Amino acid sequence: MNEQQTRRRRVPALAPDERRAALIAATLPLLRTHGAAVTTRQIAEAAGVAEGTIFGVFRDKASLIAAALESAFEAGPVLRAVSAIDPQAPLRQRLSDAAAILIRRVESSVPLMMLARTMPCDAENSPWAALLRGRRQLVDAIAELIGPDRDQLRRSPETTAGVLFALVASTVRGDLPTDKPFTPDDIVGVLLDGLLAPSAEPPNRGDT
To answer: What is the pLDDT along the chain (208 residues), one digit of tens a residue?
Structure first.
């Protein structure tokens, strides 16, 4: 008996929903490595099942990929992490904690975003729609987190949260020219203070 057959025998029978979740969990790391070129054989081996098992759960490989992407973009775990941030902490600390959570979220999503763009797009039911829906939920959650300090902000909490997300996404994707990676504190510093050094004196507008 070869190793693959042994592994399959050790996989217990699962209920349909559990089998679906197991196949999605096995697919996601492969998508980050291989993209759409991943094969159902690779997925079956990673899940420890026969290749035909996949087609007993999903119509085809594209359906499995779409389900895996939607699962990756589901915002529930990240929303729970944001909700766990101490609401009594200073605003700057809350934003830094939120930025750290967003960095992990975007880092895990970037390899999958381009793949999501290639999938058929439905206004309500597609990986890309799931990505945008999750992004809106995260921005709303962060806006709620910083809402009590709206009087300290020149823009609304919703706008502030959206700019924070944009800064995180640009940082993770490497869109911002920088001499070293931005930390969560760096990102919050840019958001709240701009790029003026703390020791810099504002110009004296009374001078002529």
So the answer is: 454 554 444 555 677 789 999 999 999 999 999 998 999 999 999 999 999 999 999 999 999 999 999 999 999 999 999 999 999 999 999 999 999 999 999 999 988 988 888 876 555 678 888 899 999 999 999 999 999 999 999 999 999 999 999 999 999 988 877 777 889 999 999 999 998 876 665 555 554 4
Give the start-to-end residue ranges of the domains of the chain.
3-71, 74-193
The label of the residue with tokens 């439905």 reads 122
Q: Residues with Cβ < 8 Å from 102, sequence gap 6 or more?
A: 78, 138, 142, 164, 165, 168
Residue 35 has a CB neighbour count (10 Å cut-off) of: 14
The domain made up of 74-193 has a fold known as Tetracycline Repressor; domain 2 (1.10.357)
- Class in CATH terms, 3-71: mainly alpha
> pTM for this structure?
0.80
